[in-house]
């Protein structure tokens, strides 16, 4: 067997464990009986350890060294070797005891964060957070970096991402979006939300609506499922078994529909992978930013467009005939695009969302660099919300304690959400050049052309290129905030009649 | 670490893989999307291979040799060592290539059986069946036996079981039960089934009825689930996560209720295991016969008793008020105890069921011994049905092709079904001695005393003893058909007014 074949066989073994772990995790969130929690944690830890042992097998290092010296590699082979090297280095650079310490701390930290948020008392979480920051710094030192420690953390979630790349993206975004939001707030043109808020929305109708829309987009339910979970996500085991979840609130019909479209974006990406690259890292979905581009595109760029609202209105009317009486496509479009500064990121609208991310990004940079002390964090958080969004949290639970990420040690993760928004806009702008009838197609509910474009330019390209290179290949330009800013300015002007 | 601790650690690792395989299998039957089938098969094969590699690790053989020489072992330690030895020997005695050949043949054989049954054409399955028999003989030779090849196959499913032990049990049973059935048939006292067959039974009502009954029995739904699948089964991963399934037919309300009680019997057994023996073979449920005793006890001995019917009638009335109008507890009791010779084993009543098993047992003995040729099997099958049950299959699909087991190479499995019935009767007779108010308790829906008795004498005893010894410890007598025969004679006399 050649070194390359042996490497692929070993990677398949690791991927198989990952697939099994995917099912264990999905089941845990969706339907596992409560008393099974402790032993499920053991099963997941077993799978994680089994995968880690195989990944850090010195034989993989030997194979990589041999293969990296080869000269005749095609792009898939080169990508598999590069990606295996990244995984191998990340896994072997962290000492086993350090990984165990992080895992143990994560469990404790999650508990204290949960309690702190419930009791609205930052001091309960304070020491664990301080240690999480310290561990994140150590992790960065183990992994290595060129300029900033924080770069090593960003790279975990999006290969090649650095502060030097991110700062200009965020600056361009902030300079354009912040004044736009200010203009909307000052215009006092709040759309009519009374028909939404004044009605009750039966779960059965929301389910039928979500199902109809996600089938129309092209999610294959013979190779996947829709279920309910507290925290919506897209998981499963492989392209033949993609499982996403949503949640229902009878007072808010938008959460389940747009959540479903979001997860359908993730799901169609997974279903669209190159099947001749099964079990190979080159065939896997690209970094988190690109993944998020697919979810945000269907959720926002498509789902909150005027054309989509015109297409979907009859479905709304079919499933909620009484509630929708007298509601026009325009009224629906305005309601799903309410722009309003708010405290909670996960509930934020398309315009204000990225400001929530920027706040966290600025704070993380300073925390990791040691420019901001943990004791000063809660007030710094509130000050930044006041500065960026003009509102201030009345308590810590709605402020610094709202997100789970830091309790899990996930520093460097948040920026991928904004990257997703930027990539989505950039990809759709590029797709429009090939699909001149795009708006009309959406109005007719013809989603296949857009999905096919994403299949060809994104899904089928897997991880053969690094994320920024994939975006450049697909759109002709490196990642930039321009397409998103233009999209948002245009939309806000049409909705609110304001410019900035 | 001591040799014993190392053995337990290795056994835990193997059990963990088994638990994960349990979830993969459950998911496959219950909710996996159809296109996921091929990769799920790969995942299951991966888990099976991973477990097999660990089980056949020569280090286990070394540890066992060392431990078998120890003198101071308590009963749990001795059982763990004995059971690990059995598994190790069974796994190592079969050459890897032979195991692979069996697995490959099983897949092909399953396909040809499915086609043969659908087309009612035995010839399609004939060659595969002949090879299955040949492989079963080879397997027996690899595993070893004292008297008969068939003994080695019986031992796979119930440790210590042999033809010498089974023949007297079956003979005693046949001599008593066959005339009883004949007497019932001749009496022409068929109960009134018109209220059952003439009504439609909504699935929602059947679900509520099953749920109410299984909760009352004491199945813990915080540590388990009820779902729907084509082939009902009880699976899951461990005592904290026991998952059973049932199926619904709107023309037959008994199938789902008694199927649910059957699986609840299996499920309460799993939930009742000794938790200080988690991951240890000594703590696992005993052989298939004992497992089946728990399911058949709740399904038949309890569920088809006059007292249970009196207790459950109000539940029937609650969920099916119109259908149950005018139906008395006695009429319900008579209907759920219809005794009638039929062709299909899985639909057979309590009295005729064991004759179906005996036919397969006699045939398997002769096939494995070479006393019956495959080409003569279909007619031999029909002749035995005529002899034992007085009916003859109109075609092969309802005859020799009805069961899946032989296509899976499972020779020696069927007898455990009848053992389950015998053990159930014997255990309940013993429990009655400790529970003098048993009948009254069932009439009041107080199932806890009986469940507690089974917990103490069966569930908590795990696999510390071999099956026959467990039955003797719990009941004071070795396995015997007497309790079952007495139970059946008494019941048939009360129902049909006949004796034999």
TrEMBL record, chains A, B:
GO terms for biological process: proteolysis. Binds 1 zinc ion per subunit. Its cofactor is Zn(2+). The lineage of its organism: Archaea, Methanobacteriati, Thermoplasmatota, Candidatus Poseidoniia, Candidatus Poseidoniales. Belongs to the peptidase M32 family. Keywords: Carboxypeptidase, Hydrolase, Metal-binding, Metalloprotease, Protease, Zinc. It is an enzyme of class 3 (hydrolase). SUPFAM superfamilies: Metalloproteases ('zincins'), catalytic domain. The keyword Protease applies. The keyword Metal-binding applies. Its EC number is 3.4.17.19. PANTHER family: CARBOXYPEPTIDASE 1, METAL-DEPENDENT CARBOXYPEPTIDASE. It catalyses: Release of a C-terminal amino acid with broad specificity, except for -Pro. This is Metal-dependent carboxypeptidase. Broad specificity carboxypetidase that releases amino acids sequentially from the C-terminus, including neutral, aromatic, polar and basic residues. Coiled coil: none annotated. Zn(2+) binds at residues 262, 266, 292. GO terms for molecular function: metal ion binding; metallocarboxypeptidase activity. The active site is at residue 263.
């Amino acid at each position: 067997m050649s070194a390359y074949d042996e490497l692929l066989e070993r990677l398949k073994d690791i991927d198989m464990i990952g697939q099994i772990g995917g099912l264990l995790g999905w089941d845990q969130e969706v339907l596992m009986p409560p008393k099974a929690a402790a032993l499920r944690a053991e099963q997941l830890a077993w799978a994680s350890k089994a995968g880690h042992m195989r990944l850090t097998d010195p034989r993989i290092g030997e194979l990589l060294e041999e293969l990296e010296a080869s000269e005749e590699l095609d792009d898939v082979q080169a990508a598999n070797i590069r990606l295996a090297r990244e995984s191998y280095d990340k896994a072997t650079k962290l000492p086993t005891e350090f990984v165990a310490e992080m895992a143990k701390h994560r469990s404790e930290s999650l508990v204290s964060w949960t309690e702190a948020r419930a009791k609205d008392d930052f001091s309960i979480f304070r020491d664990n957070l301080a240690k999480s920051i310290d561990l994140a710094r150590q992790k960065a030192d183990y992994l290595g970096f060129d300029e900033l420690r924080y770069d090593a953390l960003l790279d975990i979630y999006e290969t090649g991402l650095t502060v030097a790349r991110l700062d200009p993206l965020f600056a361009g975004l902030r300079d354009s979006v912040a004044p736009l939001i200010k203009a909307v707030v000052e215009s006092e043109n709040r759309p009519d939300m009374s028909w939404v808020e004044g009605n009750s929305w039966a779960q059965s109708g929301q389910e039928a609506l979500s199902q109809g829309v996600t089938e129309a987009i092209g999610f294959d339910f013979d190779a996947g499922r829709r279920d309910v979970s507290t925290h919506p996500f897209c998981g499963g085991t492989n392209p033949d078994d993609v499982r996403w979840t949503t949640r229902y609130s009878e007072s808010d019909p938008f959460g389940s529909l747009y959540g479903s479209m979001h997860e359908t974006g993730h799901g169609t990406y997974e279903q669209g992978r190159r099947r001749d690259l099964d079990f190979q890292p080159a065939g896997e979905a690209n970094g988190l930013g690109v993944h998020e581009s697919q979810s945000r595109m269907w959720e926002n760029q498509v789902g909150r467009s005027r054309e989509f609202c015109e297409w979907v209105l009859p479905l709304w009317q079919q499933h909620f005939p009484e509630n929708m009486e007298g509601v026009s496509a325009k009224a629906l479009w305005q309601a799903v695009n309410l722009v309003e500064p708010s405290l909670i990121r996960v509930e934020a609208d398309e315009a204000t969302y990225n400001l929530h991310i920027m706040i966290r990004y600025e704070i993380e940079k300073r925390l990791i660099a040691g420019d901001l002390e943990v004791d000063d964090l809660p007030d710094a958080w509130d000050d930044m919300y006041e500065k960026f969004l003009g509102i201030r949290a009345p308590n810590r639970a709605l402020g610094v304690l709202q997100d789970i990420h830091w309790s899990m040690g996930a520093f460097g993760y948040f920026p991928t959400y904004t990257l997703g928004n930027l990539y989505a806009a950039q990809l759709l702008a590029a797709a429009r050049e090939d699909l001149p009838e795009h708006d009309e197609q959406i109005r007719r509910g013809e989603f296949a052309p857009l999905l096919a474009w994403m299949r060809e330019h994104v899904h089928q390209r897997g991880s053969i290129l690094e994320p920024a290179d994939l975006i450049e290949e697909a759109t002709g330009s490196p990642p930039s905030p321009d397409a998103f800013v233009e999209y948002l300015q245009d939309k806000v002007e049409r909705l609110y009649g304001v410019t900035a």
